[in-house]
Design goal:
Bound molecules: 4-diphosphocytidyl-2-C-methyl-D-erythritol 2-phosphate, adenosine-5'-diphosphate
Number of domains: 2
Helix content: 25-40%
Oligomer: single chain
Radius of gyration: 19 Å
Shape: globular
Strand content: 25-35%
CATH class of the largest domain: Alpha Beta
Order of helices and strands: HEEEHEHHHEEEHHHHEHHEEHEE
Length: 316
């Protein structure tokens, strides 16, 4: 990664990191280490966080924006953990002030914490002028969380393993989304636990792992065609029943989005954000307006994808 002179002038660097939606999320049985193998197709969305880093005498963290009060402003913040991990890699102290402008919903299934970690990694690599490759950054990212490598990568990718092993997916055109943000978040581990519980109660028999972890070829072909009408019926999420079980009101939200004219709606990752794929930008604006009036969400946003991976915006 080559440093630019921008960061040198002011001593601070800003990185922009995208949110994500899982267009397909197949979840295997629980592994012995507590994780689940996944086959997922991520799409990065234009809804983003901006992460600014500047040299300081200590590691400090500040969070601004609508979601600031729901995020820990201490060493447990994923951006702070990313700073410590990168400083360890570089053999230097993590003396840096991190300032997060947060618009990605917290505990919303849109990988906001992962975005902040990716933002801190990219911004600090630039601030400290580190000679670190994207692959090395991705390795540090994977240790911070399963979704962090995708936040670095962006665009559209097939994720396997815990979700950290990525392969670029060919995607044509722009997809227009409406996001219904819920009033209460959902904890990712709790949603995976609920899926395990539901699966035991459903069948009592062994899960067909090959079927659960089948690559979604039809979806990938639809993405290459660039037609949202082809993509919409193929949206799939194994975690959706678990999220609905923990937050039953999401059923109403999903129905309301489709009734408002979306092509299809899905719980984003572990939820509770509901993501609605629309035919075009105008349709997304119309669906968002109608959904806002339906009173089924804390707030409603439009977003487009695929968005680029985490990147430096310039000096601050
Ligand atoms: C569900 C997904 C779908 O993309 O995203 P979100 O909806 O939370 O954003 C991801 O799997 C979340 O990834 P991330 O939030 O990075 O999870 P991690 O920090 O690695 O793990 C948190 C916890 O989630 C569970 N976990 C996570 C990933 C995975 N493949 N299997 C799991 O069982 C484990 O209980 C783990 O302790
Ligand atoms: N920078 C951060 N932004 C958001 N949440 C964070 C951050 N650092 C730590 N967290 C913690 O991680 C949890 C999951 O956050 P988040 O990534 O927003 O959700 P999800 O895993 O559903 O995508 C939050 O409840 C919060 O306590």
């Amino acid at each position: 990664m080559s440093p630019t002179s921008l960061s040198v002038v002011s001593g601070s660097v800003i990185a922009r990191a995208p949110s994500k939606v899982n267009l397909h999320l197949g979840v295997g049985p629980r592994r012995d280490d507590g994780y689940h193998d996944l086959v997922t197709v991520f799409q990065a969305l234009s809804l983003h966080d901006d992460i600014r880093v500047a040299r300081a005498s200590d590691l400090t963290i500040a969070v601004r924006g609508e979601w600031a009060n729901s995020v820990p402003a201490d060493s447990s913040n994923l951006a702070a953990r990313a700073a410590v991990a990168l400083a360890d890699w570089a053999g230097r102290p993590a003396k840096v002030a991190i300032d997060i402008a947060k618009t990605i919903p917290v505990a919303g299934g849109m990988a906001g914490g992962s975005a902040d970690a990716a933002g801190a990694l990219v911004a600090l690599a630039q601030l400290w002028k580190l000679d670190i490759s994207r692959d090395e950054l991705a390795e540090i990212a994977a240790d911070l969380g399963s979704d962090v490598p995708f936040a670095l990568h962006g665009n559209t990718a097939l994720g396997t393993g815990r979700g950290e092993q990525l392969m670029q997916v060919l995607s044509r055109g722009e997809y227009h989304w409406v996001l219904a943000l819920a009033r209460e978040g959902l904890s990712t581990p709790a949603v995976y636990r609920e899926l395990d519980r539901l699966r035991e109660s459903w069948s009592g028999q062994d899960l067909d792992e090959d079927e659960l972890l089948r690559r979604p070829d039809e979806l990938m072909q639809a993405l290459a065609s660039g037609d949202p009408h082809a993509v919409a019926p193929l949206l799939y999420n194994d975690l959706q029943p678990a999220a609905l079980s923990l937050q039953p009101s999401l059923r109403r939200t999903l129905r309301a989005g489709v009734d408002a004219g979306a092509l299809n709606g899905i719980v984003s990752g572990s939820g509770p954000t509901c993501a609605f794929l629309c035919a075009d930008e105008q349709s997304a604006v119309n669906v968002a307006a109608e959904l806002s009036g339906a009173g089924v969400a804390r707030s409603v946003r439009t977003a487009s994808g695929p968005a680029p991976g985490t990147r430096v915006l310039g000096d601050g």
